[in-house]
Amino acid sequence: MRNAIFFGLLLGRMVFPCRAQSLTEMRAAPTSSSVYARQAINLLPGFETTAAGWEARLTRPTNEVGQWSAPFGWTPYARPEGGTGIVGIHTHVLPNGNVFSWEGHNATSVMTMSPAYQWNPSTGTFTSFENSDSNIFCSGHNLMPDGKLLVAGGHHSYGTVFPSPDPLQPPTKVQEGYIGIADANIFDFSTGTWQTPASSHAVPLMAERRWYPTNTSLANGESLAIAGQIHGGNLPAPNAKANPTTQNLIPEVWQTGGGWRRLTGAARRLPLYPMMFGAPDGRVFNAGPNSNTGYLSTTGAGAWQDVGRHQLAHPQAVDLHQYDLGEHEAGTAVMYAPGKILIAGGGGFGGVTRTTELIDLNSASPQFRFGPNMAFGRQHVNATLLPDGTVLVTGGVSAATTVDADAVLSAEIWTPPTATAPDGSWRTVAAMKVPRLYHSTAVLLPDGRVLSAGGGEGGGFTAHYDAEIYSPPYLFNGPRPSVGGVPPAVGYGQSFILPTPDYARITRVTWVRLSSVTHSFNMNQRFAESSFTQTTNGLTVTAPPDANACPPGHYLLFLLDGNGIPSVGNIVKIGPSNCAAAVALSTAPRNSNNCAAMMRVSAAGTNLGTDYRWTIDGYYQPSYDGRTSIEVYLGTEAPSATVAVAVTSSCGGSAATSTQRVTHYFPKCDLK
Predict the structure, then answer these.
(1) Within a domain: residue 30?
(2) Residue 286: in which H helix or E strand, if any?
(3) Residue 606's pLDDT band (boundaries 50, 70, 90)?
(4) Which of 200, 316, 423, 632 counts the most CB atoms within 10 A of its CB?
(5) Which residue ranges does the record assign to the Galactose oxidase-like Early set domain (predicted)?
(6) Residues 503/534, Cβ–Cβ less than 8 Å
(7) Is residue 404 part of a domain?
(8) For strand 155-161 and strand 521-522, is the pairing parallel, antiparallel, or unpaired?
(9) 55-79 b/e (C-beta count within 10 Å ≥ 16 → b)
(10) How far apart are CA 118 and CA 102, in angstroms?
(11) 561, 629, 558: which is closest to 590 by C-alpha?
(12) End of a domain among 12, 28, 59?
């Protein structure tokens, strides 16, 4: 040990060689995370000291592992039992860039309200938007093409139950278990209001109750609500919640014009919160956590087609339980590219697993294959798509327990398949500060960071009324690309200009759909990538080709440079290119006299967005941006003017323009 001592610091399953210089003597029993010395240590990069010369801990640089913020209180909600905050059980990113979150009530008695809050990431402020009509605890949800949040089902109560034919009436007492609700609720981010079954614009009820359902956005703009429990029951093993009398077997579709349509030809007993994804052929793929998977067609009465069986399959997934048992229960899944799915972690007959599986739905005969193992087994885990196409996995518990002591704090990042790693690869990154287990959530923020919130409030798990934010390694690798003039909406296959001073160093343009997550599954996120060409001072980008690759709705648009550093995300609505705007101008005098007149010019039409740009006699008028009508002054010296307006589409189609010559005649003007 004349010059240096080499040692390894064990982190999970990874060993990092380290070196400390000029160490004259080491204490007999160093810990796995420290080195003690009687005299000062001269430290190489990668070490930090907590007491100079006495304790040295390895710290990997932030551009390799990222960094977690300190935890902060999640909402100012005053809890009835004392204290503040909610458990972030349901968390969403809205088209206004804010995070929307609620907990609901895990109550034995009937509750008909849910505290809900928007959090502004820029200011850190919370605003209350309570739903006073429905307990939307353990509901399903997705963002519809217009950005409104559709919430299906939720929690009625716990008790001895049997569903009444009328889902609004109290059930007849027969059997013990959780009771779902048939409520559908819609939150409009633009007005900050809820539409509920009891509101003035009543949302129609589903045909039957759902507790723990999954919502999925469809390529045609509709939304699927599937599975969930009508009521629970004390029924025999192996899976009490799969009893045919308690599960909602019939999927329902929320139609673009409103109202529900039942898929009576597609009855299937699925697990709670099944992992559902829009497939490349327009059908919906059930990827898990059940071992036997399949495609669901939502046309007509609906129909299923079996696909494949997980490599890690539940031995009892046969007969009555062939579609509801699996080894990835409370694991997570993500479509990391169109048609390509990663399933990670979970548990079942064989206990908590670190196994991952991959399937490519673009294949003529898709089959599951094992992917590389994670460093840690994880149940109640979340997976979040990042701007560079990698997948961040956070939280979870490493054993079939409910205690924070078994929590997995270290996050992991999965890089999708490459030529040298055909099944992708994992790396362990920074450890979060707070255990995030059952009822935790994680969402991608527009600035490229990841919010992780909640955990607990039910199931015997410790409740955490806080959140923390992860800054991935790409935020520590240099300056971020900048971009301006991003259109609020684009159509499928549409080419558009993105002005950026960094055009010469941009290598990728990516899209990540806004998050809507609960119970380890993000029901809304998707990833896509666009082709582009460099132009003077910008890029010409081609939007994703169709709704099967990118279901209509709102996405975060990122530009990435050659080092994988993303720009701040801009929220862009993608939709059908045939949804073109149409606009016409009309004029009317607002006031006039013999020698002057003020003329009002108004724009009206169909599919009109909120981005209005006005010109008068060819000169752009920025002070009129966003206005649906303007005023034009005319006089004897200038009795006419040419007014033009350009308006974006409200649904992703092409913009519209209209031009009109405005004239006023002054026959009685006497300027003497």
Answers:
(1) yes
(2) strand 284-288
(3) confident
(4) 632
(5) 480-574
(6) yes
(7) yes
(8) unpaired
(9) bbebebebeebbbbeebeebbebee
(10) 9
(11) 629
(12) 59
503 and 643 assigned to the same domain: no
- Cα-based angle 547, 568, 358 (whole degrees, multiple of 5): 50
Please state, in angstroms and rounded to a whole number, the distance separating the CA atoms of residues 3 and 194.
69
Q: Please indicate, yes or no, whether residues 494 and 363 belong to a single structural domain of this protein.
A: no
| 17 & 143 share domain | no
More confident residue, 642 or 512: 512
In a shared domain, residues 158 and 230: yes
Whether residue 49 is contained in a domain is answered as yes
Q: Which DSSP category does 62 fall into?
A: H
Distances (CA, A) of 500 to 481, 485, 493, 569, 574: 8, 9, 21, 13, 21
- Map 357-401 to HEC letters: EEEECCCCCCCCEEECCCCCCCECCEEEECCCCCEEEECCECCCC
- Integer CA distances (angstroms), 226 to 341, 436, 442, in order: 19, 26, 22
Structure tokens at 558: 């990122």
Structure token digits, residue 81: 């039992």
Parallel, antiparallel or unpaired: strands 570-575 and 489-491: parallel
CATH number for the domain that contains residue 152: 2.130.10.80
Give the DSSP H or E segment for 64. helix 62-65
Distance, CA of 282 to CA of 548 (rounded, Å): 6
The answer to whether 396 and 407 have CB atoms below 8 angstroms apart is: yes
Asked if 643 and 571 count as a contact pair (C-beta separation under 8 A), the reply is no
How far is 394 from 410, CA to CA, in rounded Å? 7
Encoding tokens for residue 218?
A: 């469809």
At a CB cut-off of 8 Å and minimum separation 6, what does 603 contact? 583, 584, 585, 612, 628, 629, 645, 647, 658
> Is residue 179 in some structural domain?
yes
Do 306 and 401 lie in one domain? The reply is: no
**With bands split at pLDDT 50, 70 and 90, how would you rate the model's confidence at 432?**
very high
Q: What are the start-end ranges of the E strands in 617-655?
A: 619-620, 629-635, 640-649
Q: Within this chain, do residues 243 and 320 fall inside the same structural domain, yes or no?
A: yes
SS3 504: helix
Who's near 471: CB < 8 A, 6+ residues apart? 62, 66, 67, 68, 69, 449
pLDDT digits (tens, 9 = 90+) for 98-128: 999 999 876 555 567 899 999 999 999 999 9
Residue 324: band (very low, low, confident or very high) from pLDDT cuts 50, 70, 90: confident
Answer yes or no: are the C-beta atoms of 259 and 204 closer than 8 Å. Answer: yes
Q: Where are the beta strands (DSSP E) in 524-626?
A: 527-530, 532-535, 538-542, 553-561, 570-575, 582-592, 596-606, 608-616, 619-620
Q: Is the dihedral of CA 80, 85, 88, 91 positive or negative?
A: positive
- Strands of 570-575's sheet in order across: 489-491, 570-575, 553-561, 506-513, 527-530
Report the domain count for the chain. Answer: 5
Length of the chain: 672
343 phi/psi in degrees, rounded to 5: -115, 135
**Predicted TM-score (pTM) of this structure:** 0.80
Q: What is the DSSP letter of 316?
A: T
Burial of 41 (0-12, 13-18, 19+ CB in 10 A): buried
Domain that holds residue 453: 73-78+340-476
For residue 56, what is the enclosing H or E element?
A: strand 55-58
Residue 254 structure tokens: 């929320």
Residue 592 pLDDT grade (very low, low, confident, very high; cuts 50, 70, 90)? low
Partners of 284 in beta bridges: 278, 296
**308 and 159 together in one domain:** yes
Distance CA 416, CA 410 (A): 20
- 302/153 same-domain check: yes
| Phi, psi of 590, rounded to the nearest 5 degrees | -90, -45
Find residue 150's DSSP bridge partners.
142, 186
- 383 vs 287: CA distance, rounded Å: 15
